[in-house]
């Protein structure tokens, strides 16, 4: 078990490029706390920079692009859906570092033929090389993703042969290097909590690739806080039964990278799978209700794909008493509000109630 200072020393040994604005704000939601009967705080990674449209990927990218630059790379490849927040944030920070972003994007939702919207629009403004991979008849999203990785690798090989140096950022930045960003996030939260006299009982967030969760769980293990603070991870897409196992393995590879001996067990992860239906990038009523609730009590925006469904999961767990009254709860706002300007398929009836 490490102290905050020792954890920071371990993180300082990794290459890192400062990209966002940290620490992100941590503040209490007065009106909603009163309404729900818990002490509710928001960790504002939606305001992480480097422009209006921050999010959780900035923390991962500090370490990923740190490594890319240490290796002398000039081009960065990454992958995701056409409205990927991760891909957009990667494009933005590549420009901040003088690197060329190449994005391979699977069209889970067909881009609006009438014009580019939301993250896909921003990708173009950043001048990223955008390669769209349409879903083939009968092909699953996972198969199309595999195909995009293959196509990306072929393009990277061609560029390398022409003298470029390419760096591959996996989808969602979910690698030990990327997850180190959320070890740093956990340490940051605990340091802020200490200064505010706040020891959170619960930290809640939306989980996709698992890179954020792996980093948070690794950070918690590093500081020996498994018994003190539960992490509620709300799935925003279907997860197979091995998800906890794979995510704990990623957390452990992150701890190995940091040369730390602490470990995360799959049983330490609390993943709720009941809140994403009917599917990834398809809105649901509880998620949209959660967005309206936070907007109308606190003036803060979530999104329909990630943070709204995550918030809805947390609200339900509070209402069911699984997060008891008077608990100190931190919701990690991972960003994503650009989705509010995406295709109708992604936002549903959000503005109609
Ligand atoms: C807004 C938002 N929240 C949460 C997540 C989930 O993060 P992770 O993929 O690290 O699980 C993402 C990932 O794309 C995201 O864009």
What's the CATH class of the largest domain, please?
Alpha Beta
Give the strand line-up of the largest sheet.
Answer: 1-2-10-7-8-9
Q: Which ranges are low-confidence, i.e. pLDDT below 50, for 5 or more consecutive residues?
A: none
Give the name of the CATH architecture of the largest domain: 3-Layer(aba) Sandwich
Question: Mind telling me the C-alpha Rg?
Answer: 19 Å
Identify the overall geometry.
globular
Describe the structure in your own words.
By secondary structure, this protein is of the alpha/beta class. It folds into two domains: 4-55 and 174-352, Rossmann fold; 58-173, Rossmann fold (3-Layer(aba) Sandwich), CATH 3.40.50.1100. 43% of the residues lie in helices and 15% in strands. Helix 3 (57-70) packs across helix 4 (85-97) and helix 4 runs parallel beside helix 5. The chain starts with a helix and ends in a 6-residue tail after the last helix. The model has no long low-confidence stretch (mean pLDDT 97). Pyridoxal-5'-phosphate is lined by residues 55-56, 85-86, 172, 174, 206-213, 306-307, 334-336.
Give a quick precis of the structure.
This protein is 43% helix and 15% strand.
Strand and helix map with partners:
Blueprint: H1 4-12, E1 26-28, H2 30-36, E2 39-44, H3 57-70, E3 75-81, H4 85-97, E4 100-107, H5 118-125, E5 129-134, H6 141-161, E6 166-168, H7 176-196, E7 202-207, H8 211-222, E8 230-235, H9 243-257, E9 270-272, H10 285-298, H11 307-319, E10 328-333, H12 344-347
Parallel strand pairs: 2-10, 3-4, 3-6, 4-5, 7-8, 7-10, 8-9
Antiparallel strand pairs: 1-2
Helix pairs in contact: 1-7, 3-4, 3-7, 4-5, 7-8, 7-9, 8-9, 10-11
The chain binds pyridoxal-5'-phosphate.
């Amino acid at each position: 078990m490490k102290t905050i200072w020792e954890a920071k020393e371990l993180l300082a040994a990794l290459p890192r490029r400062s990209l966002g604005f940290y620490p992100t704000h941590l503040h209490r939601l007065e009106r909603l706390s009163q309404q729900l009967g818990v002490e509710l705080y928001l960790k504002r990674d939606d305001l992480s920079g480097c422009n209006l449209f921050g999010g959780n990927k900035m923390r991962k990218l500090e370490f990923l692009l740190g490594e890319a630059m240490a290796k002398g790379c000039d081009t960065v490849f990454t992958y995701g859906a056409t409205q990927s927040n991760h891909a957009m944030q990667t494009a933005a920070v590549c420009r901040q570092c003088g690197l060329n972003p190449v994005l391979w994007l699977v069209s889970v939702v067909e881009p609006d033929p009438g014009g580019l919207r939301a993250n896909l629009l921003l990708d173009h403004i950043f001048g990223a090389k955008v390669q769209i991979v349409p879903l083939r008849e009968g092909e699953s999203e996972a198969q199309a993703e595999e195909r995009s990785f293959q196509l990306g690798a072929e393009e990277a090989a061609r560029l390398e042969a022409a003298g470029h140096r390419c760096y591959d950022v996996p989808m969602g930045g979910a690698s030990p290097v990327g997850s180190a960003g959320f070890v740093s996030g956990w340490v940051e939260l605990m340091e802020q909590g200490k200064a505010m006299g706040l020891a959170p009982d619960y930290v809640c967030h939306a989980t996709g690739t698992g890179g954020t969760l792996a980093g948070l769980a690794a950070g918690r293990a590093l500081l020996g806080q498994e018994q003190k603070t539960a992490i509620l991870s709300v799935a925003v897409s279907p997860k197979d039964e091995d998800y906890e196992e794979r995510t704990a393995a990623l957390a452990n590879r992150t701890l190995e990278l940091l040369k730390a001996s602490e470990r995360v067990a799959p049983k330490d992860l609390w993943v709720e799978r009941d809140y994403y239906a009917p599917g990834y990038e398809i809105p649901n009523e509880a998620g949209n209700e959660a967005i309206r609730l936070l907007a109308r009590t606190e003036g803060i925006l979530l999104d329909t794909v990630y943070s709204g469904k995550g918030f809805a999961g947390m609200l339900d767990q509070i209402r069911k008493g699984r997060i008891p009254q008077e608990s100190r709860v931190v919701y990690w706002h991972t960003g994503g509000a650009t989705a509010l300007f995406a295709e109708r398929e992604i936002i549903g009836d959000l503005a109609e109630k």
